[in-house]
Amino acid sequence: MDQPNKPATPIALCTLLLISLLLIYLLSETNSPVSITAIHNTSMYKDELEAALEGASMGNKTVIITIVNRAYTEGDKPMLDIFLDGLWLGEDTRQLTNHLLIVAVDQTAFERCQFLRLHCYKMKTDGDEFVDEKTYMSEDFIKMMWQRTRFLGDVLRRGYNFVFTDTDVMWLRNPMSRLSLNETVDLQISVDVFNGNQWSQRNPLNTGFYMIKSNNKTIALFDKWYGQRNYSSGKKEQDVLVELMHKRAFKRLKLKVRFLDTKYFSGFCQNSKDVNVVSTVHANCCRSISAKVTDLITVLHDWKRFRDLSGNKTMGDHRWSDHSACINSWIS
Question: Which stretches are transmembrane (predicted)?
């Protein structure tokens, strides 16, 4: 009797196994570049805001931020242009534009920023349109201020410190030398009228200019602050922050807050008494953009006149011009 041919089955199985291994190898070789690329792209990906912040950041992850809409970028002499004029004419301020992030709330403002070749970011605004001038304390003005608060809280959560400045703040000197670099100071904020004590919470704070550190305490403050928006009908975000301060929120969060002397960080509410040391001038206590523009142009003229005469030892005391347009903006 003939014996059956037993080796056929193992040979067939080995052949099938080799073919399977070859197919797996070929498929892995085909897909591996795609997989590596996908992993690489995921690890290197940054969203638009992160890229904008990184591009404008100083070495210590500090950014200067201002927020504009179309009303601040159009007209014979737009507010944004006046703000940039201040940086151009100021002492030791031109290089600060390298760390300035212009946050636009509409497409026109964004395109204007890009045209000026600045660091630009277009803010998402929940579908609200903030392109036109928002009259002080109007419903749209209040909405825009809360959108701003939410955005700035996001910046803090990303680990960036920032100096926030309204666009109607003239930077006549580099303010960094007047801001404390002490890491224990969490927030340094401007005031309408300085009461003489930089640590006193009786100072009437103004959110138009402040420097803030990114840490758990400041992030918690912004979360609490923005969380009050639905319980604060008819109040702007600054009013709510003042209320939180008076309700001892700063103390509960263990925030160290410094209030900035108007001698150095002045405004139309209280002029600096010393033009030789003033860093910023804010068009506060003013109702309309047109009035701000008129009086800020006058500030620039005052500044240039001071600079022209500063070599004259007998020039006497400098006097700011009256802020007539802003005073009259409340009469309507």
Answer: none
Residue 9, pLDDT > 90, answer no
Counted residue by residue, the chain has a size of 332
Q: How many domains does the chain have?
A: 1
Report if residue 243 sits inside a domain. Answer: yes
The DSSP output letter for 173 is B
- Domain membership of residue 292 (yes or no) is yes
| pTM metric for this prediction | 0.82
CATH of the domain at 224: 3.90.550.10
Task: Please determine, for residue 220, whether its predicted confidence score (pLDDT) is greater than 70.
Answer: yes
Decide if 121 is inside a domain.
Answer: yes
Quick check: is 32 in a domain? no
**Eight-class DSSP state of 73:** T
Asked whether the beta carbons of 59 and 67 are under 8 A apart, the reply is no
pLDDT tens across 77-86, in order?
999 999 999 9
62/64 Cα distance (integer angstroms): 7
Summary count for the chain: helices (H), strands (E):
10, 10
Q: Could you count the other beta carbons within 10 Å of the beta carbon of residue 246?
A: 11
- CA dist 219 and 155 (Å) reads 9
What 3-state DSSP class applies to 113?
helix
First-to-last alpha carbon distance for the chain, in angstroms, is: 121
Q: How far is CA 71 from the centre of its chain?
A: 18
- 106 phi and psi angles, rounded to 5 deg: -150, 170
Q: Collapsing DSSP states into helix, strand and coil, what is residue 61?
A: coil
Give dist(CA 256, CA 81) in Å, integer: 35
Give me the domain span that covers residue 102. 48-310+319-328
Radius of gyration over every alpha carbon of the chain, rounded to an integer in angstroms: 29
Tell me, what amino acid is at 38? A
